[in-house]
Design brief:
The chain is of the alpha+beta class. Helix content is 40%, strand content 15%. The protein has 2 domains: 145 residues, no CATH class; 219 residues, no CATH class. The strands form 4 sheets. It has a 5-stranded mixed β-sheet with strand order 9-8-7-10-11. A 3-stranded antiparallel β-sheet has the order 1-5-6. Strands 2-3-4 form a 3-stranded antiparallel β-sheet, with no helix packed on it. It is globular and about 80 Å long. The chain starts with a helix and ends in a 23-residue tail after the last helix. The C terminus is likely disordered. Pfam families: Cas12f1-like_TNB (PF07282), OrfB_IS605 (PF01385). It comes from Actinokineospora alba.
Amino acid sequence: MLEHCGHARFVWNLAVAQHAHWQPGRKAAPGYTEQCRQLTEARAANSWLAAGSVIVQQQALKDHAQANANFFRRTHRRPTWRRRGQREGFRIVAVEPGDVRRVSRKVGQVRVPKVGWVRFRWSRAVSEGVKSYRVTRDRAGRWHVAFPVVPEPIAAPRTDAVVGVDRGVVVSAALSTGELLSVPALRDSEKARLLRLQRKLARAQRGSIRRGKVKTAIAKLKARETDRRKDWVEKTSTRLAREFDVVAVEDLKITNMTRSAKGTRNTPGRGVRQKAGLNRGILANGWGRLVTRLEHKAPGRVVKVDPRYTSQRCSACGVVDRGARESQAVLRCRSCGFACNADVNAALNIRFAAGHAVTARGGPPLGRPANREPQHADHLLVR
């Protein structure tokens, strides 16, 4: 399977190289059909490439063609180079009904071309009539097999319930109901071990076996943190889609927010290390993945509002005051005296803004009532 990954990576990089040198006004870069013809010639000229599976190599070209089409539709980024040990994997199509079978309650088998039967953990049911699957390998050395299925969206509760979600760094997601949710991070012992491994990696000689083992150990810890974040996102998005008819979030440009502040040699940036720490905090809280999964599970029920002044506006009187935020966690309005958690206050403003957005589109009124103070629960107040 590592050879399959290497062949798929090699073919993908060749396709990327062909499109990288293409310029507007010149002859169009070769498409999928022409690249398949070139692949046949390359397999005839190279025995090591011919020894691999043609299905794996052709699907790498098809994946590149799809990625390139997504880029021109401006829904994804431009396809880039693949490196060994990163984003490893391959796809198999035209799966026969007998190519996937269940051995026991928790074990299944899948037939991989030129490999044979491969056992995997049966974590969930495989739909009938599946036609393809993808095998991937992460940096921690773990193999995964995924069968593509389009899941049904989660039905709305039909209770006209609306919730505002404010995403932050200290608190991952603050709800307008007053609940504060945080992504489970590494434990203190795991953070200490990660620090020791990073120091050990800095002393290891490049290209040595010891350095490779340390990198694998670091990747396992990072994978554990990523798994916890993904699990939190899945559970949180499912819960929000089931409990609320409308979920309001800020329309944040996360790509722009997480850009480096390093600058150039002529105009170096300021506060580069602080900005790098902020970028890590934003990415570690899964801001983008949470909204993406909400849109998948509750299509048409996710409202994005303008994020301006949501953290400075008082949710009780509507006055915008930068000095009202006493600290990261406390907001105390100097106009009406209302005080609550700053993130919850922002979530309330997001909810109210979503009500105006839904009403403007012709939906039922979901905005704030004339008297907004009764909406704030007593446990939100800061005594």
